[in-house]
Amino acid sequence: MMTIVATLLFPWAIARAQLDVPGPTHLWHLKGVVVNGSGQPVQDLEVTLVRNDQVLHTTKTDTKGRFAFDHVSGRYWLRMHPKNFSIVSREVIVGDEALMYLRKKAFYVMLGPGACTDDCSQVFTSKGNFDKAIRRNTAHHD
Length: 142
Known about the structure:
The chain is mainly beta and about 140 residues long. It is built from 2 helices and 9 strands; from the N terminus they run αβββββββββα. The radius of gyration is 14 Å and the shape is globular.
């Protein structure tokens, strides 16, 4: 997922597509997918888990934009600093601390234009909402 031109987001798309869970996101297993504004996978993007300003775990997206952290638990900041796109930074709680939620969620990330702040990238834990945002950005409506 790299040197990809992002589709500019309209203000109504940004307002509708905020993180769908307030505060930290609770996950049993941390995995996700990253795409550009047109829904194309962003490959070879470094994804890090940070605690107390230290990078503790790092992985990269594959050719389909997927990433996963195995054998990780605790509270972290999930961070992505993609070239030519806005930075993504979200608080996550993974593993044992998330037991009470027991939801099998994943992160679905649509990168926003590089001149924006983190608010321009859209992060979902609902595949349905993610797919709708891609359809809106590519002018394919239901």
